[in-house]
């Protein structure tokens, strides 16, 4: 039975038809995660077959796990003349007029004849496929690219137009996607992490995120906020994911593990365990960002990123509507939300036409969300009163808010100059060395004291701690221990 199309899906298909009718044959269609890209693709194919029963149709996916999912969607639309081009797949049949192919296999075997091609996850930009699309042989064949995040560099040099019929916020407002709440957790110190290909250096990032205090905070925050919801944890690499899984298991919380090399059978078993409640969470390495229809109630961001695409894909895994879950809880241990904004505020109305090696202009955000100092809920920009706990921040004078508890400080501290701040940082470094705390602990403690990160100071300096600094650290640890007991 053909699925009943939603209004924005009808609009998307109408816009695609009008665009191709103008002989614009390279079109990118943006549909947010959970908006039903596969349903739209199946409907496009069904319509093409109704107009021309002999039409040869091809859909290209970039993940083997999406092959059967796509075939099932085509069957659901009433299309059965389907073959698969992927290794020795049991549905291999080149005589079929509709072919579902992996781009990896096409590279080896070449393109089959086609009158219409749909490219799933087009933002990944396979170089071989782009050469095909630019060739004289294929210039008059429509290629429709599908993506939730069509913002990759140079995509505008492959596709001519972008169709963007609906926003993520509109889908949430209409009840098609789940509302969500974001809470800030430990703020990792990313000082010194290099940038490689526009994002954090993965090796350096993995080492930093494996620091004991950061992983311990993952567990403590999940117990307090995750509410035993089925959870996906996004990690930096395999070593980091394994470390996170181990610590969750040691804490008595069943935790699965998936990476790009996990066998499909094992992957299905992990999903089944999560569905049954045998495990509560799954640590994964960026392989559950696309094409995943799991019932998820909590997303843990343990992977800092500068990429809006990766960030939106990760959060999007939790935004499908699931029975029994009114919303999704996002626990951001990576500062991604404070760095990039809420996913509902990230929007681009054009394709990027920059070429490889060319720097792209970064669109300045008018304002970014802020963390509530009382409950750690991340408030939308320009929202003064916290929607979660009702806390209203006031201008600091001689009283500073910390975790919702007023702490009296001296006038000298309130007007601390650079020398005082450097002294505190040096003393916190000494305490961290004594107790084998991480550099992240130093930065976070400093931030709690002064409300800013320790930038522009000597982060390697040491100074014998005074009783004032030691007492401050002691009070902070006592407050943290009390919160853990309550949780």
Question: How would you portray this structure in words?
Answer:
By secondary structure, the protein is of the alpha/beta class. Helix content is 37%, strand content 15%. A seven-stranded parallel beta sheet has the order 3-4-2-5-6-1-7. A six-stranded parallel beta sheet has the order 8-15-14-11-13-12, with helices on both faces. A two-stranded antiparallel sheet has the order 9-10. The radius of gyration is 25 Å and the shape is elongated. Helix 2 packs across helix 3 and helix 8 crosses helix 9. The protein is built from 16 helices and 19 strands.
How much helix, percentage-wise, in residues?
A: 25-40%
Beta-strand content estimate: 5-15%
Strand order of the largest sheet: 3-4-2-5-6-1-7
Summarize the biggest pleated sheet. Answer: 7 strands, parallel
Overall SS class: alpha/beta
Q: Low-confidence parts lasting 5 or more residues at pLDDT below 50?
A: 396-416
Mean pLDDT value: 87
Task: Provide tags for this entry.
single chain, 487 residues, alpha/beta, seven-stranded parallel beta sheet, six-stranded parallel beta sheet, 16 helices
Give the SSE map:
Elements: H1 7-21, E1 26-30, H2 37-51, E2 57-61, H3 65-76, E3 82-85, E4 98-102, H4 103-109, E5 116-119, H5 127-134, E6 143-147, E7 161-163, H6 168-173, E8 180-184, E9 195-196, E10 199-200, H7 202-209, H8 212-226, E11 231-234, H9 238-250, E12 255-258, H10 264-276, E13 281-284, E14 298-301, H11 308-316, E15 328-332, H12 336-340, E16 370-371, E17 378-379, E18 399-402, E19 405-408, H13 411-414, H14 418-435, H15 439-450, H16 467-486
Parallel strand pairs: 1-6, 1-7, 2-4, 2-5, 3-4, 5-6, 8-15, 11-13, 11-14, 12-13, 14-15
Antiparallel strand pairs: 9-10, 16-17, 18-19
Helix pairs in contact: 2-3, 8-9, 14-15
């Amino acid at each position: 039975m053909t699925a009943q199309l939603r209004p924005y899906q009808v609009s998307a298909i109408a816009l695609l038809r009008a665009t191709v009718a103008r002989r614009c044959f390279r079109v990118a269609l943006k549909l947010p995660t959970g908006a039903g890209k596969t349903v739209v693709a199946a409907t496009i194919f069904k319509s093409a077959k109704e107009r021309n029963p002999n039409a040869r149709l091809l859909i290209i996916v970039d993940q083997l796990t999406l092959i059967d999912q796509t075939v099932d969607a085509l069957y659901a639309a009433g299309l059965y003349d389907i073959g698969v081009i992927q290794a020795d797949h049991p549905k291999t049949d080149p005589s079929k007029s509709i072919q579902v192919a992996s781009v990896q296999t096409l590279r080896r075997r070449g393109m089959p004849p086609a009158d219409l091609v749909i490219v799933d996850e087009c933002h990944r930009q396979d170089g071989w496929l782009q050469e095909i699309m630019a060739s004289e042989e294929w210039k008059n064949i429509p290629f429709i690219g599908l993506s939730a995040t069509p913002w990759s560099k140079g995509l505008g040099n492959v596709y001519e137009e972008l169709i963007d019929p609906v926003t993520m916020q509109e889908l949430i407002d209409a009840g098609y996607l789940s509302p969500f709440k974001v809470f800030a957790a430990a703020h990792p110190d990313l000082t010194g992490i290099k940038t490689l290909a526009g994002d954090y250096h993965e090796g350096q990032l993995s080492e930093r995120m494996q620091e004991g205090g950061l992983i311990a905070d993952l567990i403590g925050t999940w117990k307090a906020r995750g509410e035993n919801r089925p959870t996906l944890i996004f990690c930096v690499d395999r070593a980091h994911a394994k470390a996170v899984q181990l610590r969750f298991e040691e804490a008595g919380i069943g935790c699965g593990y998936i990476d790009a090399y996990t066998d499909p059978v094992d992957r299905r078993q992990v999903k089944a365990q999560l569905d049954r409640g045998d495990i509560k969470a799954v640590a994964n390495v960026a392989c559950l960002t696309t094409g995943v229809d799991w019932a998820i109630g909590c997303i843990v961001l343990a992977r800092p990123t500068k990429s809006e695409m990766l960030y939106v894909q990760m959060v999007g895994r939790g935004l499908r509507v699931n029975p029994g879950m009114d919303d999704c809880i996002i626990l951001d241990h990576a500062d991604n939300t404070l760095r990039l904004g809420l996913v509902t505020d990230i929007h681009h109305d054009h394709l990027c036409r920059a070429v490889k090696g060319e720097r792209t202009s970064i669109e300045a955000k008018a304002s970014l969300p802020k963390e509530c100092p009382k409950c750690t809920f991340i408030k939308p920009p320009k929202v003064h009163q916290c929607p979660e706990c009702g806390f209203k921040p006031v201008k600091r004078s001689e009283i500073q808010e910390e975790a919702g508890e007023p702490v009296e400080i001296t006038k000298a501290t309130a007007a601390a100059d650079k020398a005082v701040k450097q002294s505190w940082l040096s003393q916190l470094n000494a305490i961290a060395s004594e107790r084998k705390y991480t550099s992240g602990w130093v930065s976070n403690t400093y931030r709690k004291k002064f409300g800013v990160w320790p930038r522009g100071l000597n982060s390697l300096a040491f100074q014998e701690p005074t009783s004032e600094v030691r007492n401050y650290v002691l009070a902070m640890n006592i407050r943290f221990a009390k919160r853990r007991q309550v949780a």
